[in-house]
Amino acid sequence: MVRCRAKGENYSYDFAASLQNTNEQSNLISERDLTAWKGAAERMLTNEIVLKVFSDYLARDDDFEVVLTSKGYTVMGFDCYRQDWNTVYFCPTPEDLLDSLLDAYENFRMMEITGGDRDLTEKEEAKLAKERDALTALCEKEAAKCSS
Predict the structure, then answer these.
(1) Does pLDDT of 37 surpass 90?
(2) Its domain of life (predicted)?
(3) pLDDT, average across residues 7-32
(4) Could you tell me the residue ranges of all domains in the chain?
(5) Burial annotation 42-78 (CB, 10 A radius, 16+ → b, else e)
(6) How far apart are CA 82 and CA 102, in angstroms?
(7) Alpha-carbon torsion (100, 102, 105, 110), positive or negative
């Protein structure tokens, strides 16, 4: 069963049932369902979009890399003091890649702002939250632009 939400309405389509149709009748997706699927496709986030949005950040941060493995993208963090990889996040979906890079970006900016010597002020935390929201919104905007 595939579910989608578009314009405040829920839609679903049971592909398995359509394949097991014993009456040999065609299961057609209604125009309403087609509209819902099209709306979902227009917001399709890809790894390429996420990497494009975060490319400037990744060029500045020497401690984090995104590596394409045989299983998919992986975000790796390097500890320069221990000279070892200290964090490894496998990202099987673009949403996972986005979340991992948002966390890495946030840590990078915290170090940039504080130098690692203090906690963020409330004002700085609010600014950082806005930056995260802006990056997320940019990914969504790029996804919509690429799908149209």
Answers:
(1) no
(2) Bacteria
(3) 51
(4) 2-42, 47-147
(5) eeebebebbbebbeebbeebebbebeeeeeebbbbbb
(6) 24
(7) negative
Angstrom distances, CA of residue 135 to CA of 27, 77, 124, 128, 143: 41, 20, 17, 11, 12
The token pair that represents 17 in the structure block: 């049932």
Contact 139, 49 (CB under 8 A): yes
Q: What pLDDT shows up at residue 65? A: 95
φ/ψ (deg, to 5) at 44: -75, 115
Q: Is 11 exposed, middle or buried (0-12, 13-18, 19+ CB in 10 A)?
A: buried
Residue with more model confidence, 51 or 37: 51
Beta strands in 20-122, from DSSP E residues, in sequence order? 64-69, 72-79, 84-91
DSSP 49-76: HHHHHTHHHHHH-SSEEEEEETTEEEEE
Cβ-Cβ contacts under 8 Å for 6 (sequence gap 6 or more): 35, 36, 39, 40
